[in-house]
C-alpha cells in the first residue's frame, strides 16, 4: 500500500455561497490534526470509522470559527485509502477559507487531483478509472455522464483486460514452442493464431473508432448549417432550437455573422451554427460572412446543407462532403409529388415546423450512432488512450504479417508483448510519475 507521510487538505466543494462546504483532510495525521481543532462530545482519535460528529471548530487561540459536522474515515475505508476527514461547515467563502487556513497550519494544501491520485496509488482504482473521475465531474450531458460513469465502474478496464488476456494466451503458446524448438513441435496452429490476432485487431479498431463518439459525448457535436441565401437556414436553425435565435427576413443576405447555439438531442449536446448564405458578392460585409461560412465547414462534425425545394435555381450542391445531410426546406410550397424525386434528402418546413423530429433522428444516426460496432456505451474519450490503442494495433499488425511470412515465434511473441504493454498503459497499475502528474494536474483541487 502507498504510504505518504504528509497529510493534505483542500476545499472539496466549489467555492461560493451555499448550504454547506466540505473541507477534506487526508493522510497519516488527518484525524490527529482535526482532534486539535475540534471541540465536541467525543475525541476524534477515539471515533470509529464512518462515523459523524457534531461540534465546534476552533482556531489555534481557541476562538470558535464555526459549528461543524465531521465525518471520520479510517484507512483503508476511505476515498483515498488513508485516514480521511471531511469537515462540513456553513457554506460561506470566508468561513470555509478560515477553517482551511487553520488546518493548513498543521499540514499542506493538496495539489490538483491529489486525493484521487492517492486513491489510485493505493490500488482502489486504475488509471483509466481515475481519468473517468475528471470526466464525470466535467460531464455536461447525459451521454458524457453515462460514458464516464461506465468507465469509472471499470468497463474500459475490463474490455482492455479481456484483450490483454487473449494476447497473453497467444504469447504463452508461442513461447512454449520455443522451449521445444529442437524437437520441432508446433503447439499452436498458425491459422488459429492468425485468426485470434486478427479478431483482436478488429476489437482494438472498434475502440479507436469510438474516440470520435467519445469526443462528441464530452465536447458536444458541432453542426453547421450552410446553403444559398434565402433558402431558410436561419428559419431551420430556429426551428431546431425551438426559439427565435436568428433573424429571419425575406431579404437574401440577412445573416452575416455566424450565430451559435446549443441544444440537447438524445442526451448529447449539439452546437448548431447558422451562417451567411454562400454566393458571389461585392458587398464587403457579406463577403466576410461568406468567408466565415466556409471556415465553419472545415471545423464542423456535421454539415446540414439546406435547399429551398420550391426554387429550382437553388438546388446546386455547394459542398461535397460525406459528413453532410441534405435538407429540403419549404415543403409547404410544393406538392408532395414534386419533392419525392429528390433522393437522400430530409424534408422539412421551417414555417410549419414539420419534419424536425425525423431530422433530429438523422442527425443522431450520422454522428452518435454512426459506429455500428459500438455495442455498449464504451467510447474512449482520451487522446492518450487512442494513441496507446493505435500503437498496440500497429504491433499486432506486424505480428500478423510475421505469422503470414513464417517469421520465428520469438519475434512474433515479442511484438505481441509490446502490444500487451501498450494496452497495459491505458489502465496502468504502475505508471510513470510524469504521466501521473500530467493526468492529475487536469483535476480540480479537492478531488
Ligand atoms: N413558405 C416557407 N417559407 C420559408 C420557410 N423557411 C423560411 N421561409 C422564408 O424564407 C425567407 C428566408 O428565410 P431565412 O431563414 O432568413 O433564410 P436564410 O437562408 O437564413 O437567408 P440568409 O440569411 O439571407 O442567407 C423568409 O422570408 C422566411 O420566412 C418555409 O419552410 N416555408
Ligand atoms: Mg439567415
Give a quick summary of the entry:
It contains 14 helices and 13 strands. With 447 residues, it is of the alpha/beta class.
Write a concise keyword list for the protein shown above.
single chain, about 450 residues, alpha/beta, Gyrase A, domain 2, Four Helix Bundle (Hemerythrin (Met), subunit A), Rossmann fold, 7-stranded mixed sheet, 6-stranded mixed sheet, 14 helices, about 45% helix, binds guanosine-5'-triphosphate, binds magnesium ion
Task: Give a description of the structure.
This protein folds into three domains: 8-110, Gyrase A, domain 2 (2-Layer Sandwich); 138-216 and 377-430, Four Helix Bundle (Hemerythrin (Met), subunit A); 219-370, Rossmann fold (3-Layer(aba) Sandwich), CATH 3.40.50. It starts with 7 loop residues before the first strand and ends in a 7-residue tail after the last helix. It is 44% helix and 18% strand. α6 (155-179) runs antiparallel to α7, α6 (155-179) packs antiparallel against α13 (409-427) and α7 (190-219) runs antiparallel to α12. The protein is α/β, with parallel strands linked by helices and 447 residues long. It contains 14 helices and 13 strands. The strands form two sheets. Strands 3-4-5-6-2-1-7 form a seven-stranded mixed sheet. It binds guanosine-5'-triphosphate and magnesium ion. The site of guanosine-5'-triphosphate has 24 residues, from α8.
Amino acid at each position: 500500500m502507498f504510504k505518504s507521510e504528509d497529510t493534505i487538505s483542500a476545499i472539496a466543494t466549489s467555492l461560493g455561497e451555499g448550504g454547506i462546504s466540505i473541507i477534506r483532510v487526508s493522510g497519516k495525521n488527518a484525524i490527529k490534526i482535526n482532534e486539535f481543532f475540534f471541540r465536541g462530545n467525543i475525541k476524534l482519535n477515539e471515533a470509529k470509522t464512518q462515523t459523524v460528529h457534531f461540534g465546534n471548530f476552533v482556531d489555534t487561540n481557541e476562538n470558535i470559527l464555526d459549528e461543524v459536522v465531521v465525518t471520520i474515515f479510517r484507512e483503508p475505508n476511505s476515498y483515498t485509502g488513508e485516514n480521511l476527514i471531511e469537515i462540513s461547515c456553513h457554506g460561506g467563502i470566508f468561513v470555509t477559507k478560515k477553517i482551511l487556513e487553520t488546518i493548513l497550519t498543521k499540514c499542506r494544501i493538496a495539489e490538483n487531483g491529489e486525493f484521487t491520485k492517492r486513491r489510485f496509488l493505493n490500488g482502489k482504482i486504475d488509471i483509466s478509472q481515475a481519468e473517468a473521475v475528471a470526466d464525470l465531474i466535467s460531464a455536461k450531458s447525459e451521454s458524457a455522464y453515462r460514458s464516464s460513469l461506465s468507465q469509472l465502474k471499470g468497463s474500459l478496464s475490463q474490455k482492455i483486460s479481456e484483450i490483454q488476456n487473449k494476447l497473453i494466451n497467444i504469447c504463452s503458446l508461442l513461447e512454449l514452442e520455443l522451449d521445444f524448438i529442437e524437437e520441432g513441435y508446433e503447439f499452436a496452429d498458425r491459422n488459429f493464431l492468425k485468426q485470434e490476432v486478427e479478431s483482436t485487431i478488429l476489437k482494438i479498431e472498434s475502440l479507436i473508432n469510438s474516440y470520435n463518439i467519445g469526443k462528441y459525448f464530452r465536447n458536444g457535436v458541432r453542426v453547421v448549417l450552410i446553403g444559398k441565401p434565402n433558402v431558410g437556414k436561419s428559419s431551420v436553425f430556429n426551428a431546431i432550437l425551438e426559439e427565435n435565435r436568428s433573424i429571419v427576413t425575406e431579404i437574401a443576405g440577412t445573416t452575416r455573422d455566424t450565430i451559435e447555439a446549443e441544444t440537447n438531442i438524445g442526451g448529447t449536446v449539439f452546437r448548431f451554427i447558422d451562417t451567411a448564405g454562400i454566393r458571389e458578392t461585392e458587398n464587403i460585409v457579406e463577403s466576410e460572412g461568406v468567408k466565415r461560412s466556409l471556415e465553419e465547414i472545415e471545423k464542423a462534425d456535421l454539415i446540414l446543407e439546406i435547399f429551398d425545394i420550391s426554387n429550382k435555381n437553388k438546388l446546386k450542391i455547394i459542398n461535397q462532403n460525406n459528413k453532410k445531410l441534405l435538407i429540403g426546406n419549404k415543403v409547404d410550397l410544393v406538392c408532395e409529388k414534386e419533392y419525392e424525386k429528390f433522393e437522400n434528402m430530409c424534408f422539412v418546413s421551417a414555417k410549419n415546423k414539420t419534419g424536425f423530429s425525423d431530422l433530429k433522428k438523422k442527425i443522431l444516426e450520422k454522428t452518435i450512432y454512426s459506429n455500428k460496432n459500438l455495442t455498449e456505451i464504451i467510447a474512449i474519450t482520451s487522446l492518450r488512450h487512442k494513441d496507446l490503442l493505435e500503437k498496440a494495433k500497429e504491433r499486432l499488425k506486424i505480428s500478423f504479417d510475421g505469422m503470414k511470412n513464417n517469421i520465428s515465434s520469438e519475434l512474433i511473441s515479442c511484438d505481441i508483448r509490446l502490444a500487451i504493454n501498450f494496452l497495459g498503459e491505458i489502465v496502468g497499475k504502475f505508471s510513470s510519475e510524469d504521466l501521473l502528474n500530467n493526468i492529475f494536474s487536469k483535476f480540480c483541487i479537492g478531488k
